[in-house]
UniProtKB/TrEMBL annotation:
Alphabetical list of PANTHER family matching this protein: CYTOCHROME P450, P450, PUTATIVE (EUROFUNG)-RELATED
SUPFAM superfamilies in the record: Cytochrome P450
A single cellular component GO annotation: membrane
Listed name of the protein: Cytochrome P450
PROSITE patterns per UniProt: CYTOCHROME_P450
Record keyword Acetylation present: no
Molecular function GO terms recorded: heme binding; iron ion binding; monooxygenase activity; oxidoreductase activity, acting on paired donors, with incorporation or reduction of molecular oxygen
Ranges that cross the membrane: 6-24
Protein family: Belongs to the cytochrome P450 family.
Sequence positions that bind heme: 446
Origin species: Diversispora epigaea
Length: 500
């Protein structure tokens, strides 16, 4: 390497800058805080352990320091709350917020402006409760039909074994039935709309592909940098927003017109856009650009909350099924009995009868493999029942492995797959409890979980009835990891028609 005296000032400046960051970011703990795990490398702290060895690293910390404890990652002290403490975080919903904690790492507000408004979350949750969950029975037939359409289109005839790649996690399959419920039957058949829904989350996360290195300085610096391309016109999401707007506008206009002409004879279609027409600026007579933008924002908030999550867990569940031949007969027999009873037309009553499938799904959700997730930010200093205090601004990560693999709830081998644990203990897949945090807990527990579980069960029922499904290795496939977060395997699944 060439060295000259001119390079000395550069070294000096780099040294001063590094020391300044070190000094500014040096953790300063208050009284009674959870113990901070000692670390060797300044600034970097535990980041590398957290990214590349989260499972073992957090398990060691938990064993030595109890629950909760704090680690130093990406320039911030982060508290890890496990089996004993996490439920307190979720119960104190006025003090801890997940929406706020994900704002910097997932800056959706830069694209969907409505997110910034204070009542957006309330409106969204109400739309799910009143517009989807309360009407779930009425959607059953449509969800079933759209899923069958997708299965025939995307998997189709497998008279010879066919490898189906799962890199997209069956997202268009899920997107088609979600689109039917959200934007109605007129436009959900359009493949451009299905594609916009299926790809929205993936394309948005492409904006976030840069690792949060700059969070070492401050999380907001990272957010500014990752959203910089949007400022210069690179917005991979815009095309999806435009697709939806183009298709949605004439449908909304026609509905307003029909209402006016038909009055009491107007038969409201069953979907979430009709819910919004009735509840967002109810007396609107014209679909202005502002109004259209607002409805599209809400629809994409629902898309981002529902499709990626549901399709990921459908994929996890299929791998769990395919890699465990010992479960095949039991689960298949249940589906055959139900199918005969309903003559291929599932009703909510028949979905309730899928008790083994529900229990299997719950187990798949419990063991999906993320070590830590669902960060919450503390709005004001908070003291847990054990006397430990976390300061305002602190991020608390939910230590899912500690909760989902606790021996008190799940016995001496909590990591083994217990397909009928839910059935034996009367814990349906959509029921939250203190040993099962896949849908969160408390006031903000996922309002879409009933819809998601229904959709996954209908999809699994149809797939198990129609195909033998196995993994290429004949065993369970290894899941992928992105830091402490688990992603479905990518080995592919082998489908073969069942003989009828
Ligand atoms: C398997 C699929 C799904 C999983 C694993 C999942 C998981 C979660 C989790 C962990 C939370 C945070 C809960 C908390 O803070 O306590 C959440 C919140 C939320 N989910 Fe889901 N979700 C799924 C499907 C859906 C669907 C289908 C929808 C919409 C139809 C949806 C809409 C929401 C909304 C709006 C929130 C925010 C609730 C609030 O903060 O009050 N989710 N979800």
């Amino acid at each position: 390497m060439h060295f000259s005296f001119e390079t000395i000032p550069t070294f000096v400046w780099v040294f001063i800058a590094t020391y300044a960051i070190y000094w500014i970011k040096k953790p300063r703990l208050g009284k009674n805080e959870p113990p901070l795990i000692p670390y060797k490398i300044p600034i970097i702290g535990h980041t590398l352990d957290y990214l590349f060895n989260a499972e073992n690293f957090l398990a060691e910390c938990r064993q030595k320091y109890g629950d909760p404890f704090s680690v130093y990652i990406f320039g911030q002290v982060t508290t890890i709350a496990g089996n004993e403490i996490a439920h307190e975080v979720y119960a104190a919903s006025d003090t801890f917020s997940m929406t706020n904690a994900t704002r910097d790492s997932f800056p959706l507000y830069r694209i969907l402006k409505s997110i910034e408004k204070p009542d957006t979350l309330k409106i969204t949750v109400k739309a799910i409760r009143d517009g989807i969950t309360a009407k779930l029975p009425a959607y059953t037939e449509r969800v079933q039909r759209t899923l069958m359409f997708s299965i025939n289109k995307e998997i189709g005839d497998c008279s010879k074994p066919k490898v189906i790649t799962t890199v997209n996690n069956f997202s268009s399959m899920v997107a088609r039935s979600v689109a039917d419920v959200l934007v109605g039957q007129e436009i959900s058949k359009d493949e451009d709309v299905v594609k916009a829904f299926a790809d929205f989350t993936k394309d948005f996360t492409a904006v976030l592909a840069i690792p949060p290195i700059l969070s070492f300085i401050h999380p907001k610096v990272h957010t500014k940098i990752i959203t910089l391309p949007l400022k210069f016109g690179w917005n991979p999401i815009l095309k999806h927003l435009n697709t939806l707007k183009k298709h949605l506008k004439p449908v909304l206009e026609k509905r307003l017109k029909d209402r006016e002409i038909l009055g009491d004879k107007y038969e409201p279609p069953l979907d979430v856009i009709e819910y919004f027409l009735n509840n967002l600026e109810k007396d609107t007579k014209v679909i202005t650009d502002d109004y259209l933008n607002k409805i599209c924002d809400f629809i994409f908030i629902l898309v981002i909350a529902s499709i990626h999550t549901t399709s990921h867990h459908t994929t996890f569940a299929l791998y769990d099924f395919a890699g465990r031949p010992e479960l095949w007969d039991d689960l298949y027999e249940e589906q055959v009995i139900i199918d005969k009873e309903c003559n291929g037309e599932l009703t909510p009553h028949h979905i309730n009868k899928m008790v083994k499938l529900d229990s299997f799904l719950r187990e798949s959700l419990r063991t999906f493999g993320s070590v830590a997730a669902n960060p919450h930010r503390c709005f004001e200093s908070y003291t847990f029942k054990n006397g430990m205090t976390v300061p305002k601004g602190r991020i608390i990560q939910t230590y899912l492995s500690d909760i989902h693999y606790n021996t008190t709830a799940y016995g001496p081998n909590p990591r083994s797959f217990l397909p009928f644990h839910g059935l034996e203990n009367n814990f349906p897949a959509s029921k939250t409890d203190r040993d099962y945090f896949v849908f969160g807990a408390g006031k903000h527990a996922c309002p879409g979980r009933f819809f998601a579980v229904n959709e996954i069960k209908i999809g699994l029922h149809k797939l198990i009835l129609n195909y033998h499904i196995r993994t290429p290795s004949g065993k369970t496939e290894k899941k992928l990891n992105y830091g402490p977060v688990a992603l479905p395997p990518v080995a592919g699944l082998i489908f073969e028609n069942r003989k009828k």
